[in-house]
User: Fold these one by one.
Assistant:
Number 1:
Amino acid sequence: MTDVDRAPIEDWATDFDHTHPDYAARAPEVWDELRDRCPVAHSDRQGGMWLPTRHADVAAIAHDTRRYSSEGVIVSPFKPVGMAPQGYAPPITSDPPFHAEARRLLLPAFSPKEISKLEPAARASCRELLDTALADGADVVDAARQYAQHIPVRVIAEMLGLPREDGDRFRVWIHRIIEAPGARRDIAYEDTLFYYLGQMVEDHRSHPRDDLIGFLIGAEMDGKPLATEHIVGTIGLLLIAGIDTTWSAIGASLWHLAQRPDDRRRLVEDPAVLPFAVEEMLRFYAPVTMARIVADDEVELGGQTLGHRDWVLLPFPSANRDPEAFDRADEFVIDRERNRHVAFGLGIHRCLGSNLARLELTVAIDEWMRRIPDFELADPDAVLWSTGQVRGPRQLPIRLLHPEAL
Ligand code: HEM
């Protein structure tokens, strides 16, 4: 399943690897163990990196853009250099002062009002996927492959103005960039996301369209049009951030519900609990861990000394399970009222697509539960979790209970 051979992990406190299949399968246990035993862990893998697991440390780093740069946000053996403050995928890879303007440009497209317009299409898409999955009377459905993975692709492709049929290609690029960074070195430039997006931008320039790519082509910063690298970097970011994350959150939510008849029943009998359930899914199964590069000469953190240009992982999912920050942190509480989770990050880089992510997650769970209210894991051992900084099920066979009633 992995792209490269992996030595087994001997001790998570000194030898962790977030791209290892063992981490993918049991990351929450690893965070719990490290939070107690070694709250800022170090590993030599991936060229060397730090892993803080406490909420307080994760929050301190996210808010400190002076000492921790976003020039690199995906840990890989190739550490970006000399690209700050713009970075290769603005605004996520941008530092102040460039960041604010690059982010501001995008805000109108992701406002609650604009995003709410997408709801009917998102619902129709979920229903169509369920129709297809259930068409031949199947009683086992792969909720990751036949459902979750397609929902965000359709929405973001439409917003950006990219062909929806290219969904499979997007997922190949996402796998290479997020799940197995640096694993392949033999890829032709014509087969990269950045080449593809460059072609798409050229096509939009010659055939102007009213979509997000068209908008970015016409946008200006400091009175000048955006550089092509800026446009391509931003579109690449939206495509990756928009697909992998929500796909993971939808899959993890269905994985949870497949094992919890009490929570399924509650959603069916009390639909008003859905918004609370969505927030708790985001807290408990937060999919996104980001990274930073240390910008100061030395930084003290949790008794450790981090050096200049060291990689630091920022595991928001671990912060969300810290008992210092949440009551009953290790329990999934479907109607949790006070839920200040950090699944969408903290500080200036807080997720720009959170309205869209919430819409997609809500609609995906709601439509699934209306159609398939009762279900279980068909084979718990067949569930496969992604490796890397975005965590969610990539294979999720689910058996429908009472299919005759569907
Ligand atoms: C459940 C789904 C999602 C989760 C958990 C999530 C999580 C995050 C997190 C943790 C960050 C902070 C990054 C950092 O601190 O370096 C972030 C940033 C971002 N996200 Fe999301 N995201 C999700 C969905 C989306 C979607 C659907 C989009 C848009 C298509 C999106 C677009 C962005 C962008 C553009 C940024 C960068 C913002 C900035 O740097 O100012 N995300 N996201």
Number 2:
Amino acid sequence: MKSISIDGIKNNLKQITQKIEESISIKEVIAQIESSVKKTTEFKELKIGNHIAKTPIIQGGMGVGISLSSLASAVANEGGVGVIAANGIGLLDEDYFKDGDNASVRAFRKEIRIAREKTNGIIGVNIMVAIDNFKKMLDVAIEEAVDVIFMGAGLPIKNIPVKRIREKGISVVPIVSSARACDLIFKMWSKIYKDVPDGVVVEGPKAGGHLGFEKDQVDKKEYQLSSLIPQIRKALDVYEKQFDRSLALIAGGGVYSGKDIYDTIKVGADGVQMATRFVATDECDADEKFKMAYVNCKKEDIGYIKSPVGMVGRAIRNSFIKNSEEGKKHKFNCTWKCLATCKANDANYCISVALNNARLGKIDKGFVFAGSNAYRINEIVSVKSLVTELKNDYIKECKLVNIKNLKPVIDKLNVLYNKYQNKLQIELACKKAYEKALITYNDKLIAELRNQYKKAKSSTLNVQLLLEEKLTFAWKVIT
Ligand SMILES: Cc1cc2nc3c(=O)[nH]c(=O)nc-3n(C[C@H](O)[C@H](O)[C@H](O)COP(=O)(O)O)c2cc1C
């Protein structure tokens, strides 16, 4: 008789547990949690005007022939935005020293067309506002209907043919180093053109090439991307509301790994701009020796130059740079002043010629621009494998963060679940006692035990509700 009653209790317990588990759909909620973890770990698309990049990575434009059609099309084929840089591109044309202006236009057009043949992905161009033939290069980009025009090294405000740009469905993205510059560009565009650019690239002080910072600013916290991104987001918010459209915030400078991409997006960016990593790829348009300079350099080799164009630049410091700083002149003929700000008469070398020499592999007759993280590179890989590595690393980081976020919630859920099981047992014990009492016909005892059973039931229900609430929270945390 005794054993039957224990079995009965066990059976009841099993049934009620099952019932309650079903009623709070634990399995369903856990499945939802798992699927939402999967959802948030994928790369998010990057929308720049009408163009949507599946991979939220822009390959930063690298002038004087480092990022041309080969690199740009390879990046575009991986779902990112491939960028051909306009400055110094004329050096690819044999007539550059006779007619730099037309040589540049020719070479630029040619590279855009080759890139288009190699990919159906997104092709952008980088045109420095400071270059002498800015307007002509802009015309080429419009005529060739590139997808995105990035404009840096100056403020692209006046004389921008916005109407023609829009007619061709081209997106415009200025490159800035501060929220102030961003706000100024957007404010002036909205006044002059009743339109705004489609987003902005904020380039921090860890970038390669010419920097928008002075040497004493590069290590300061207030100039790092983590400080700049929220400020730029705030500046963009105003124009997003005013023009009722989303504006892309892209951040670059020192972004090296998938974890860096995750961290950059986490502080408010929609995507990243990366250049240094793309130099050490098979498809990069520079000579192998240029790429190997990245593979072989050490942290202490990466430093600054005071460029003849009047800006600070980051490069791999070699004897060419050191000798020039010590006064050695590298003879050159400035046939046409390619950069408005260049102090060619006072310079010990022509920066375009020096960079072109490096591009061709004559590193000791020039130098290599590089980002602060170039020393971490130790092999040349394909663009495909680089993007895959970045994506996998990004996914790994997302999963880690999700698990970290979820752990305290799961711990709490376990405590609650144990508590729930205990309450259930008490409830069942009360139920059993009450049922036994029913056959005693003792009204007082029956009433007392009924009360006790009711209390136990409501206590179980409270824990069940709490359990449901925590499960819902767990789900919310990771979506
Ligand atoms: C070799 C090299 C050349 C560059 N040339 C240009 C350029 O011509 N115009 C420009 O706007 N930025 C230029 N940059 C900057 C990149 O486009 C990019 O914004 C920056 O390097 C991102 O930082 P990261 O190299 O650490 O990824 C250059 C960078 C490198 C490494």
